[in-house]
Design brief:
The structure is a single chain. By secondary structure, the protein is mainly α. The protein has three domains: about 15-75 and about 165-180, no CATH class; about 80-155, no CATH class; about 190-225, no CATH class. It is about 40% helix and about 5% strand. It has a two-stranded antiparallel ribbon with strand order 1-2. The two termini are about 25 Å apart.
Length: about 220
């Protein structure tokens, strides 16, 4: 558990293992031309992508492990809008909101296959606000305004939304797993733990406070006075 939560900085085994597996799952999702992806795709998801795959009959141990990371990859992915031709407006995460990258407006009947390119002016790199205002609610319109439309030549790209560079990192995936996928409330002990770790006292005393945190959650505050 992280030190600011009353732990000693040791990683949660399940959360860290899932983040490591997610790195492989992310490659299956974003690197379709690699030999590894082609092998697994041929066997486990020939007509879809990694996130659309099923566990299958008699799966291997390795595939079973990577399959478990689907929930992590799904939660961390987002499309970077290029020409918009690859992005389904309703089903794909393409908004920049960290809380929810999917549109919240209800799907319009007859427009189920609407793509982001359909929301752009075909002649210029700008949004078609006449269409957007007619289809989306206020929240989605505000999120679309944050996106700068690209030229028709730019390609859409799947990125990792939890990293400023858009690249998958085990660190960001682990943080996301611990915040959303692992019930860690029982491990969190209130207190000014980071201040305690910065104190100029023997390390063994700091460890003693942490080990006794469950029974005495006020130790860090008392020590810092």
């Amino acid at each position: 558990m992280r030190k600011e939560y009353g732990g000693m900085g040791f990683r949660h085994f399940f959360g860290f293992n899932l983040a490591m597996l997610g790195k492989q799952g992310w490659k299956l999702q974003t690197e379709p031309d690699t030999i590894v992806t082609k092998i697994y795709k041929a066997k486990y998801f020939p007509i879809t992508d990694f996130l659309g795959a099923h566990l299958g009959h008699n799966p291997s141990f390795i595939w079973r492990s990577m399959f478990a990371s689907q929930v992590l990859v799904r939660g961390g992915q987002r499309w970077r809008v290029g020409n918009g031709s690859s992005i389904n407006v309703w089903k794909a995460p393409w908004l920049r909101s960290l809380e929810n990258s999917f549109v919240s407006s209800p799907c319009v009947h007859g427009m189920e296959n609407l793509t982001v390119i359909d929301l752009m002016d075909s002649m210029e790199a700008r949004w078609n606000w006449e269409v957007i205002n007619a289809v989306f609610n206020e929240r989605d319109r505000a999120e679309i305004r944050k996106i700068l439309p690209s030229s028709q030549e730019a390609e859409d790209k799947l990125i990792w939304r939890l990293n400023s560079k858009g690249c998958y990192t085990v660190k960001s995936a682990y943080r996301y797993a611990m915040q959303t996928l692992v019930n860690n409330e029982e491990y969190i002990v209130p207190g000014e733990w980071l201040r305690m770790w910065r104190l100029c006292i023997p390390q063994r005393i700091k460890v003693f406070f942490v080990e006794n945190a469950k029974g005495s959650p006020s130790h860090p505050n008392e020590t810092s006075r």
